[in-house]
Design goal:
single chain, 5 helices, five-stranded mixed beta barrel, 3 domains, OB fold (Dihydrolipoamide Acetyltransferase, E2P)
Length: 320
């Protein structure tokens, strides 16, 4: 892929405390300079008035307001939802300054546009993304079918639940919480221009994950599913093993397991359950792999070369 340089746009909340943003919102004159330069800023939304305009905290020297029609960038055919405005109250909001008036108390009242910030982000960044690009994301909320992620200025991408890891999850909340900053790869763009992303390709191959363990070792895992023939227990997001049936196991619990065998030819890990650990609630540290810090990935092969079954992803921009 040809090298490309695109501006950096932050998920909302990530710009708020950066020094350049603090200086640009320090007083009315600095805000005026940002308006002249077309700079994207961030500040907290403190309320939504009866007209669904967002009132923005610009400090003691000025007021800020985002009129309803400037609150969100809608794609063609997309219907406006009130939650897209009221859901920002109490959170950081990205915006550009598009005008200035005088408030009743004599202070400057800056007219702001979140829509303009999102439009710039879309044209200069999101529209330039290609399948396989690895980007910064911020989880905003989860549904059973996937996690919604802010990929810049409040513009969203969907991380489907089956793209979070090779180990299948009943719900994205099993892995992520709102506010988590993650890395993900662009999977494809649909006909409406919506971005779909994937993370499992950044969580290591079978061999990379299996190398973290040894036969004869006893470790903890999470019981992900219970079948008549055994229980699947997640050791890492991209590695699960099968243990024999046990009546005391409950999905979602931790378990202490003995690693009986690692079989790369079949991508199998055989486990023996020592005991379940319902009292363990602290999240385990997850392994990271160098690919997570890369900028692009063309393809990814999960399965070992010695395995007849091939599990891989080719980033060609086609839907899954």
């Amino acid at each position: 892929m040809d090298n490309k340089i695109v501006p950096h746009y932050f998920p909302e909340g990530e710009l708020l405390h950066r020094i350049e943003n603090r200086l640009a919102t320090a007083n009315a004159d600095s805000i005026r300079r940002a308006m002249k330069n077309g700079t994207i800023l961030e500040a907290p939304a403190i309320s939504a008035n009866t007209e669904l305009s967002l009132e923005i905290d610009l400090g003691p020297h000025a007021h800020g307001i985002i009129p309803l029609h400037e609150c969100v960038l809608l794609s063609d055919g997309e219907k406006f939802k009130e939650i897209s405005v009221i859901g920002r109250v109490g959170k950081a909001v990205a915006f550009k300054v598009i005008g200035e008036e005088r408030a009743p108390d004599g202070l400057p009242l800056f007219i702001l546009s979140r829509r303009a910030a999102q439009l710039e982000c879309k044209h200069n960044y999101i529209d330039c993304l290609e399948a396989g690009d690895i980007i910064d994301c911020k989880v905003t909320h989860t549904e059973r079918y996937g996690a919604f992620c802010d990929i810049g200025c409040g513009c969203f991408a969907l991380l489907p639940v089956d793209c979070i890891s090779v180990s299948r999850l009943p719900h994205p909340k099993e892995r992520f919480s709102a506010g988590d900053c993650i890395r993900a790869a662009v999977k494809y763009r649909d006909s409406a221009g919506r971005i779909f992303i994937t993370r499992r390709e950044l969580c290591g191959t079978w061999e990379e994950n299996a190398a973290l363990f040894s036969v004869g070792q006893t470790v903890t895992g999470i019981i992900r599913s219970i079948e008549p023939y055994g229980a699947f227990i997640e050791l890492t997001p991209n590695l699960a093993g099968l243990a024999e049936p046990c009546d005391s196991l409950v999905e979602g619990q931790f378990a202490a397991v003995y690693i009986k065998s690692l079989i790369p030819e079949k991508m199998k890990v055989k486990l023996v359950v020592i005991d379940s650990c319902p009292a363990i609630n602290a999240p385990r540290p997850l392994p990271t792999f160098p690919i997570e810090n890369a900028e692009h990935i063309d393809s990814w092969k999960y399965s070992p070369a010695v395995c007849k079954k091939t599990v891989e992803t080719v980033f060609d921009g086609t839907p899954m």
